[in-house]
Amino acid sequence: MTASRVPEGVPAEAGPDDVREHRLHPVTPLRRAWAPIAVLLGWAVHDMDQAQRQLAHLTATTLAIGLAVLVPAAALYGFLTWWFTHFAVTDTELRIRTGLLFRRTAHIRLDRLQAVDVTQPLLARFAGVAKLKLDVVGTDKKDELAYLGEKQARDLRAELLARAAGFAPDSAREVGEAPAQQILHTPPRTLAVGLLLTGTPWAMLAAAVVVPTFLWFATHNVWTVIAVGVPLVGGAFTNSAGRFIKEYDWTVGESPDGLRIDHGLLDRVHETVPPGRVQTVRIVEPLLWRRRGWVRVELHVAGSANSVLVPVAPREHAEDVIARILPGVAVPKPADFAPSPRRGHWCVPLWWRAYGVAVTETVFAAREGLLQRRLSLVPHAKVQSVRLTQGPWERYWRVADLRLDTGANKTVTARLRDVQEAAELLRAQADRSRTGRRDARPDRWMSTAP
Question: Rounded to whole angstroms, how far apart are CA atoms 304 and 276?
Fold first, then answer.
């Protein structure tokens, strides 16, 4: 079912421009009815002492009356917010109207779409519904349609991508979802071993045990221990089991509309890395992964929250995926990097050995990190500006940093270069960026489609 059809049991209305509007799935009120209850829970957590005193004075009758008022009010709120939420797809935009007391209309231009992702939280999977999240150029926050029927969400996603690619409105509904070919899969065992060989979860776990224990012997105050211990335990969980749950069954597929990424143990996420929008790719190699030849690939996409391309994989497989997302780009070999001058150790002792720079016909590469190696790749066409920075101490030792700014509001830095070399790199990179933008492929969905 596409957005141009009316879901069964949900009436359609004519919008202000005679565009047929649709409501979300009928289970949506159940999700939104929790908002008033969440407000009360937030107040109780914020002021626990006051909440305990108030609950102590409540009788069973008062509590029953409160629940008899709160539950219907929450249900009414959920129903009304669902009733006053509509969406419609026009020839040029996706229009979302929301608001019970204060009306808000979001006009999302189809030619500004960066990515359209389908996500399914655990309970939504049981109910057969899904969220549709939209990344738009120039916005930090994703607009979303929650919830739609699972098939309706996928069909609407396919229609939006087809229209963003330039297909006519009538034919866009018939294009359907572009086929995808799997090019990489991370087995759960490999992911689990990779996380265990990463230092961050163990450091957070040690802090979660040592710090609360020390505070207990120092203060004997249980609330102080809880206030410090809970965030530390939460951080340890997020960096270990939380990452495993999120990155479980990680699959990367190639399709005409970009790279498809599917992952998640409890909440299934179906993301798309749009073609031509990748600004920076970073290869991360923790110390204990090197013997196995594993790497992690992260990326920065203009206007998108996608940040992980490959959670853990052998280097050759990861480089194959990078070649798909950055056509024509080859990852420089270690021998291709020019190290920093030896006098750089007066500015950054020991760690200066890890710094290096390599420039190819397609990318600027900067290397850093001694224990956890990080290699950043910036296509020449994505460099927005180039800067040379130098502090007083660096000026004394005749070294400087070269900074490349990209369209994702990120900066890649080549640390501790010889001053003369940095000036030459600055001039050459400015020329390469102009040439790269002139010869770059268009940032277009389904550019190979007829």
Answer: 12
If we measure between CA atoms, which residue out of 326, 403, 421, 318 comes closest to residue 366? 403
75 residue type, one letter: A
Domain ranges of the chain: 13-178, 185-247, 274-439
- H or E element in which residue 255 lies: strand 250-255
- How many alpha carbons fall within 13 Å on the CB side of residue 308? 18
What are the pLDDT digits (tens) for 97-120?
Answer: 887 777 888 888 887 777 788 888
Instruction: Indicate if the pLDDT at residue 20 is higher than 50.
Output: yes
Q: Can you name the residues that pair with 111 across neighbouring β-strands?
A: none
| Contact status, residue 390 vs residue 400, Cβ threshold 8 Å | yes
Segment holding 82, helix H or strand E = helix 60-83
Q: How many CB atoms lie within 10 A of CB 102?
A: 6
**CATH among 1.10.3470, 2.40.50, 2.30.29, 1.25.40 for 13-178:** 2.30.29
- pTM for the model stands at 0.79
**Cβ of 17: how many Cβ atoms within 10 Å?**
8
DSSP 242: I
